[in-house]
Amino acid sequence: MSKKVYERPVIIKQHSGLMNKFGSSPVQPTITEIDGVAVNNLVEEYGSPLFVFSEKQIRENQRKMLRIFKTRYPKVQFAWSYKTNYLSAVCSVFHQEGSWAEVVSEYEYQRARKLGVSGANIIFNGPDKSDSALETAVKEKAKIHIDHFDELYQLLEITEKLDLKANVAIRVNMDVGIYPKWDRFGFNYENGEAAHAIKRIMTSKTLNLVGLHTHIGTYIMATEPYRLAVLKLVELAKMVHAQYETVLEYIDVGGGLPSKNTLKGQYLDAEQLLPSYEQYADAITSPLFDLNLPPDELPTLFLETGRALIDDAGYLISTVLGNKRLSNGKRAIIIDAGVNYLFTSHWFNHKIVPAQNSGNFTENAAVYGPLCMNIDCLREDIVLPTQKKGDRLIILFVGAYSVTQWMQFITTRPKITMVMEDKTVEVIREDEDLEYIISPERVPEKLTSFSLK
Ligand SMILES: *Cc1c(COP(=O)(O)O)cnc(C)c1O
User: Fold this and answer.
1) In which residue ranges of the chain is CATH 3.20.20.10 found?
2) Residue of 92, 133, 384, 444 with fewest CB within 10 Å of its CB?
3) Would you say 174 and 234 are in contact if contact means Cβ atoms under 8 Å apart?
């Protein structure tokens, strides 16, 4: 048995009014391994900073969510939201689990096709679809979700020119009690635009209305907005049924379920604050039965799953570069991963935990990245045990949006690995190097030489 390290006793002032020893525990958990692979080994092998994804967690998240919805409603299909995380390996895990692809641009459409997803299994969203993107999507029988009237007319022209039918849905936005309203995408329900768009589609010979779509926002913290949204889509579906005797193939409720990540300004941890996924599923599925259709005519419920299924499967391992005292006496920890890799830290207080036992003395600290700019702050205030240079800190819940929204700024981006179910580790994206970054650049001939004195 190794001898315990002596620790000097300390007295910490408890501030009244804020949560203190009577509230959430200041003792931080330590994460020394990810799915059975030691963090130290990961860093030794692949460097720091390092993104790590857990194959096991992704599959578990997907299966659990699917079970929650399928027990409540008979026909459910998930489509993975590419923009949430379009790393090829991550998308492939979701496709192996049966998810279709949900894309919001021609680039994402091409990524899905390149991975082997057929057009018929792609949902094509977004307000910017070029003629060539639409032509491909029509030919490959993708589900095209129309965003606005100009796009509807564009698609009419394209399908008439190609003499092909397109499978379409419209995106609908509506008042669901969330303000500011997300009314810039799709056709508005309350002002009648959505019904008008449906009528225009139903009178065309080349557009085949197969579904209705909405995506009410992201990180929605209540269930009621979903219930209201589905009720309104159900009203439109009833109108289509009554006026055109058409039964829609699907109702697509989009994404937006929150992950366990905690928003800035949220006092309690997300896990204590948010409804359960079962409650969300109840709110989404129960209005569908109001369609009063025989079981075999019920539409498929599509969910465009995003952050809720990937956030807690992503880790960012970092290394402490140094400690400082700020002018106000507060401790500051500088680590080698900054907001360039974690755009999401503008909105979320990502959990940060030590990867080694650092003792029980904790202190409030600010955690900064290595960028030479003031905004490079990962946590303004977090309780952490003392960290030494070279210690590792792990940033949690970084699976959603970080590796799609990250930026390349003053340095290259690190490796991304995946811990596989059998505990082997695979590199799923190499780190960048100087050659990779400058290869698209061109220097005009007259600028190619200089001499400095
Ligand atoms: C971004 C997006 C999603 C996924 O949203 P999450 O908040 O990550 O669940 C789904 N559908 C559409 C149309 C989107 O734009």
Assistant:
1) 55-311
2) 444
3) no
* Ligand 1 mean position, distance from CA 305 (Å): 7
> How far does residue 188's CA lie from ligand 1's centre (Å)?
18
User: What is the CB < 6 Å shell around ligand 1?
Assistant: 81, 83-84, 102, 104, 125, 215, 218, 254-257, 304, 306-308, 400
pLDDT one-digit tens code per residue, 192-222: 999 999 999 999 999 999 999 999 999 999 9
pLDDT in tens, 174-193: 999 988 888 889 999 999 99
pTM for the model stands at: 0.93
**Alpha carbon of 412 to ligand 1 centroid (Å):** 28
CATH 3.40.50.2300, applies to 33-52+313-433:
no
CATH top class, domain 55-311: alpha beta
Choosing from 83, 128, 252 the residue with most ligand 1 atoms within 8 A of its CB, the one to mutate for a pocket test is 83
CA nearest ligand 1 atom 10, residue: 255
Three-class secondary structure assignment of 324-384:
EECCCCCEEEEECCCCCCCHHHHCECCCEEECCCCCCCEEEEEEECCCCCCCCEEEEEEEE
User: Residue 283: which H helix or E strand, with range?
Assistant: helix 277-285
Handedness of CA 291, 293, 295, 297 (dihedral sign): negative
Within the chain, all domains assigned CATH 2.40.37.10 are found at: 33-52+313-433
